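chain below, 182 aa
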Amino acid sequence: MTSLLSTRAVATARRATLAGFLSLVGANAAFAAPPEGTLAVANISLAQATKVVEGAIAHARTHKVGISVVVVDTSGYVVAAARMDGVPFGSFDVARGKAIASVATGGVSGKDLMDRYKANPIVFGQISSLSYGGPMFPSQGSLPIFKDGVLIGAVGASAASSQMDEDAGRSGIQAIGATEKR
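prediction:
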């Protein structure tokens, strides 16, 4: 009986704490402008990420190529992804690594990262160890996703030519009315 009452008391206290917090911050707190000198942060939704994947695949089909496409949020976690039929399974991890590299660097395109790699290979040779073991590939075929000037994620594609991978990702970004530029 004591443990049941304790469990109920804890649950009641948690609800009261949450209710008190919500009354303090208000319903629109998540959408308030950040204080001056800070950056707004948001994450791509599952619905948006799915549309990005669908748009990228539609582009690839139009050009009769197969790709893997991965959309990550601003923390580098996969939100939506697909590997088209017949595409090598390794291309999925390459696409993920491209997308992670883009968000990990604050929204830099894979093409720009590739140029930075050429200028300073020692730094980029060590970069994967900086991303909690996740792959980071500074390579063309990834683009950041900006919505209303805020980085919300990135898309990476792999298995076609680098330019085709990038163009497929761009088509996906356009499918949700977002851009690759801040």
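The beta strands are 68-72, 78-83, 142-147, 150-158. Residues 43 and 152 are 4 Å apart (CA to CA).
thats it, cya
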